[in-house]
Design goal:
four-stranded parallel beta sheet, 275 residues, alpha/beta, Rossmann fold, 32% helix, binds zinc ion, globular
Length: 275
């Protein structure tokens, strides 16, 4: 009996697709941990939008860095995020910030013996406020912890209105990354209208309280997705991947004792752009 002819094609550095011999070899100075969410995304994007985008960006960043000779490992995405104000929306799955802290602590401890210098928390969901986790964990680990909100890494100018949740940016990105999961009939997409806060201070930005999602929006979206295109999504994702890849290459060679630069510190071979 002959073997089925399926090409073997694990993506470089994507840990859940790689074998032990592949990961056992070489140096992996940087790891990426995508933080996603499971929540409604207007009427046209899937619940897993954030997780899908985070995992895909991580895989592409790993591939780009490996192609330049830097070992960057993309860990599996955490599929649940902080969604404490969306729990009245069916099948929204919330994990508490304290749970995220526990998961992150265990991941960091797991990585410590394996030569990982830096762990990048690749955030894909606005409700995941990861800074407090890093502030709490950083003093107890030699691994440099960093956060990237991937949707902020590219230029927003290409979008009429980038939007906040299932808006033009996120819709365009998913049309590029997973077009088979975007509802094709645009006439059915919600307009993503968001009601402003009744409080002056919240509207001005100096006061904050979490948004009760079902009070803010009727279709669960925040931002009008209807001008989105796969072409804009491709440009944006590629730009974000490029910039995050440079950041990872810089982390790989950075001296943890000298990460704030002045002219007295040599920056030999510190990558500023991709070759
Ligand atoms: Zn999202």
């Amino acid at each position: 009996m002959s073997e089925p002819i399926v090409p073997y094609a694990p993506r470089p550095g994507v840990v859940q697709e790689q074998t032990w011999p592949a990961m056992r070899e070489g140096a992996w100075p940087v790891a990426l941990l995508p933080f996603g969410a499971t929540e409604p995304h207007n009427t046209h994007l899937p619940y897993g939008t954030d997780t899908l985008l985070g995992a895909e960006v991580a895989a592409r960043v790993a591939a780009a860095c490996i192609a330049q000779g830097t070992g960057v490992a993309a860990l599996p995405a955490i599929p649940f995020g902080v969604n404490t104000t969306q729990l009245d929306l069916r099948f929204t799955i919330n994990v508490m910030p304290s749970t995220q802290l526990a998961i992150l602590r265990d991941v960091v401890r797991s990585l410590e013996p394996h030569g990982v210098k830096a762990l990048v928390l690749l955030n894909a969901h606005g409700g995941n406020e990861l800074r407090a986790l890093v502030r709490e964990l950083q003093p107890s680990t030699p691994i440099v912890l960093a956060i990237v909100n991937w949707w902020q890494a590219g230029d927003h100018e290409a979008f009429e209105q980038a939007g906040d949740h299932a808006g033009e940016l996120e819709t365009a990105a998913l049309m590029h990354v997973a077009p088979h999961l975007v509802v094709p009939d645009r006439a059915t997409w919600g307009d993503g209208h968001a009601r402003p806060s009744v409080f002056d201070g919240v509207r001005a930005g100096w006061a904050w309280l979490p948004r009760r999602w079902t009070q803010v929006t009727d279709d669960t979206g925040v931002g009008d997705p209807r001008a989105a295109s796969a072409e804009d999504g491709a440009v944006f994702v590629e730009q974000a991947v490029e910039r995050i890849a440079v950041f990872c290459e810089q982390l790989a060679v950075a001296n943890p004792s000298a990460m704030w630069w002045d002219e007295r510190i040599a920056r030999i071979d510190f990558p500023e752009t991709r070759k």
